[in-house]
Amino acid sequence: MEDEDNRAFVAGIASRHDRMLRRFMTSRLRSAAEDVPDLVQEVFLRLMRVPNPAAIRTPEAYLFTVAKAVLHQHRAQSAAVPEAMDITDVLAELEDDQRPGPDVVLNAQQRLAGLKTALSQLPRKAYVVLVLNRIAGIPLEQVGEQLGISRAMAAKYLAKAIAHCRHHDREIG
């Protein structure tokens, strides 16, 4: 019964305030407007988890309070996403030097082994997002669609994978 109440609550809010919510999000994410659909979806998903929607006196105010929290979290995560890591950097070092010395070869081999270990330790979804996005070049939106997750969640998995691989690379390098 509670699930039906939540669906009715969210459907009502969505029908009355969806356009206003999208404008609100877009006005605050000018440089990342492509994230708006995922963030709106996240707002509605959070509303679905409200234990007692009937207790909310002003649904519109509650909607925008949740939206502000989602925006805040999005901005914090966007700032925390490390810059892109190119797995082929290690190999590029070898190609730059026609005859690499044994120390360069050993360092590259150690870094590659460390990267292989780091990749094997990643959770499945983080590994898949990293491979699809960074190796196959598939945009995060499409990666999210393929995995049945939002773009924001795909970005979280990617950030986790990159941070994990960088941590292992620093330990070796």
End-to-end C-alpha gap: 57 Å
Mean pLDDT figure: 82
Oligomer state equals single chain
- Our Rg estimate from Cα atoms comes to 21 Å
Give the number of domains. 2
Number of helices: 8
Poorly predicted sequence stretches spanning 5 or more consecutive residues: none
Question: CATH H-level name of the largest domain... which superfamily?
Answer: Winged helix-like DNA-binding domain superfamily/Winged helix DNA-binding domain
Helix content: over 70%
Write up what this structure looks like.
With 173 residues, the chain is an all-alpha fold. It folds into 2 domains: 2-80; 89-172, Arc Repressor Mutant, subunit A (Orthogonal Bundle), CATH 1.10.10.10. Helices cover 76% and strands 0% of the residues. The protein is built from 8 helices and no strands. It has helices spanning 2-28, 36-48, 59-80, 89-96, 102-121, 124-135, 140-147, 151-172. 18% of the residues are buried. The mean pLDDT is 82.
In short:
The chain is mainly α and 173 residues long.
Question: Secondary-structure blueprint of this entry?
Answer:
Layout: H1 2-28, H2 36-48, H3 59-80, H4 89-96, H5 102-121, H6 124-135, H7 140-147, H8 151-172
Features:
single chain; 173 residues; mainly alpha; Arc Repressor Mutant, subunit A; 2 domains; 8 helices
